[in-house]
Amino acid sequence: MNLSRRSMLRRSLAVASSSLGMPILHAQSNDSVRIGLILDMTGVYSSISGKGTATAAALAIEDFGGSVLGRKIELIVGDHQSKADLASTIAREWFDMRKVDTIQDVTGGAAALAVLNIAKEKNKVIVFSGPSADRITNDLCMPSSVHYAYDSYSLANTVARAVVRNGGKEWFFITADYTGGHDIAKAATTAIIEEGGSVIGNIKHPLNATDFSSWVLQAQASKAQVIGLASFGNDLVNFIKSADEFGLGKSGKDTKKLASLLMYINDVHALGLQAAQGMLLSEGFYWDMNDETRKFSRRYFERVKAMPNMSQAGTYSSTLHYLKAVKAAGTTETAAVMAKMRELPVNDFYATGYIREDGRMVHDMYLFQVKSPDESRYPWDYFKLVSKVPGDQAFLPLAKSQCPLVKKS
């Protein structure tokens, strides 16, 4: 590793560790079980990942008791700064030098696929709750990887099909010009066409765009009934703010609707209900669904001052599930742990589900609509449930999977 790369790596770990009050790990002994997270701690996705995801994993470790197999559980966090090559560099150093046993999340599709390759090379357990890339459980699936919270197929399957069935036949996409955006737009396009709809335009924008006005005007000028947003984080928030300023879908004969293919509760909070009201979105988790989700979320809120999104709650669940598997296996050895992760059902406040042979954690997904300001009764009361999609319908059927681990009859 050259000096500049090593310096960047050290800075990324220092930023993450200092922001969480965690020490940077240097020891190479096997006296601890080490869990890693490679997140966006400072960039465009920091509000939907970052400290919140790290806090969720820390809560899972606390709830498990802080140790397993007589060994202390340690959490190590890295900031990949939205750079896939830095994410893979961090993963390689963790596995080789810091003896990290598992990585429990990586923010962003490109970074996730880069780290997936390192985990495959090193034969390590890796679980994803942040990225949407379908390839994780398709052509790039491997025996020790799990896609936990959601993926492009489930999001598109939930939102796009529902909108088309309710009359939104013609779509125009605003798409983030990188892996995550491309994947989710492609999945949505397939769902739209299968339901008898069509896509009449698609504009791609770069990461961390500063001015969306020209794209809003192009979407406004289109003849589409639905503006599909395959954009995420701060970019998604800024597009919707710009759309609200231009009155997209809110005036005269312009009856266009905005449909987000991946919108977190953090995004709605940043926008405010006035701008976000009426939007349809898909989630695998909502903090206010039942007593169990509220109990966890209020604990989480005490530390983060925000309610958890589905990726953050998913990281809590995946971390806890991994530790239960380690305990049941009596070892951190990869094959034994993965066998237990597949054998043990997932059953907690986040979801009731199971891990398939392709690595997909199958659970119910939900279609929500953002409430109006008048409908919201208390802080963070943002969503109303439209429908539930059972797990066996929400995710890609195994019969359509390209995963080489899937046995075809």
Description:
By secondary structure, this protein is of the alpha/beta class. It has two domains: 3-150 and 291-363, Rossmann fold (3-Layer(aba) Sandwich); 153-287 and 365-390, Rossmann fold. It has helices at residues 3-20, 50-64, 84-98, 109-122, 152-165, 179-194, 213-221, 233-245, 265-271, 273-276, 291-304, 310-329, 334-343, 391-394, and strands at 32-39, 67-68, 71-79, 102-106, 125-128, 145-147, 170-176, 198-205, 226-230, 257-260, 280-283, 346-347, 352-355, 361-362, 365-370, 383-389. The strands form four sheets. Strands 2-3-1-4-5-6 form a six-stranded mixed beta sheet, with helices on both faces. It has a four-stranded parallel beta sheet with strand order 8-7-9-10, covered by helices on one side. Strands 11-15-16 form a three-stranded antiparallel beta sheet. Helix 5 runs parallel beside helix 6.
What's the end-to-end separation, in Å? 46 Å
The structure class reads alpha/beta
Apparent shape? globular
**Counted beta strands:** 16
Number of contiguous helices:
14
Q: Look at the structure and give the mean pLDDT.
A: 91
- Largest beta sheet: what is the strand line-up? 2-3-1-4-5-6
Number of domains: 2
Strand content: 15-25%
State the low-pLDDT regions, or none: 14-19, 21-29
